[in-house]
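Input record (Table S2, row 337):
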Amino acid sequence: MIHDQLNRVLRDVRISVTDRCNFRCTYCMPAEVFGESFQFLSHFDILSFEEITRLTHVLVKLGVVKVRLTGGEPLVRKDIEQLTAMLAQVGGVDDLTMTTNAYLLPQKAQALKDAGLRRITVSLDSLDDAVFRRLNGNRAGVQQVLEGIAAAEQAGFSPIKINAVVQRGVNDHTIVDLARWAKERGHIMRFIEFMDVGNLNGWRMEHVVPAREIAQRIHAVLPLEPTERSYRGEVAMRFRYQDGGGEIGIIASVTQPFCGDCTRLRLSAEGKLYTCLFGTEGVDLREPLRAGASDAELEQIIVNTWTRRTDRYSEDRTALTDDAHTRRKVEMYHIGG
Ligand code: SF4
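Output record (iron/sulfur cluster complex):
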């Protein structure tokens, strides 16, 4: 196991398998910026399945046990189930999971399950179709996502986690409906405080609905009680329903940051390592990889990157106010949330 400067071990890697997406969510990939003529990475630019698998072997040797596949939208990467099968064969990966907008799950869910994917998290910011369409650039309706979730259930994924980014004045009036819907179906809702990820979503503190308020709103209708995190480093604060009807999670990166336990490394689609969601510079692995570097050399680059890590942006956000506005952060679609 390797430790960073704040004594945090490397345990999880989020692998972005593409910078492309079939949605245009306003807080990540606004349509006005990512239009028809936007130049995404070419097939040559992005890591191949073999390169991703090789790097995963090296990362597991350094303590990684959990691999999350992200994007952009991972399901738009052609033959993603093949990569899933390759990663499922990597010894030491105890948890292979994916975050998706579920739009392509009707076609892919069974193949992903058969390939060895263990869990699925679906992004769904509202059940109100008009609100949802406004949030995803009018690329899909709620019904299509619900069909994707149904396909994942059919394929045997359970429980399914549902992520919703809560923005004041945008979708916060629909969070109780989401909680009730998920509770009735045994899904685990995870509400996410709106974050200043990247540089394009016009984030301001007044757009944030604090975790405490989210919990209070739901508790008023569906009584909750706090419960323990299931492991050190789990991002969500957990609450269970007092009637025993399941649980929800709230990811409070803004009002109750959890950097002290952050064990996550991110690998972008073009092979750069980022040590924080709000990072600025990535460490390139693709060039040494394609220049014939040995596993030991790749390992050394990862060790140097992690052991020098001091990131705790969410804890420093307020102190970093000035820098926060000038800091050119990596865009979330590039490293997958
Ligand atoms: S802000 Fe950075 S260091 Fe803090 S929890 Fe998020 S990714 Fe980890």
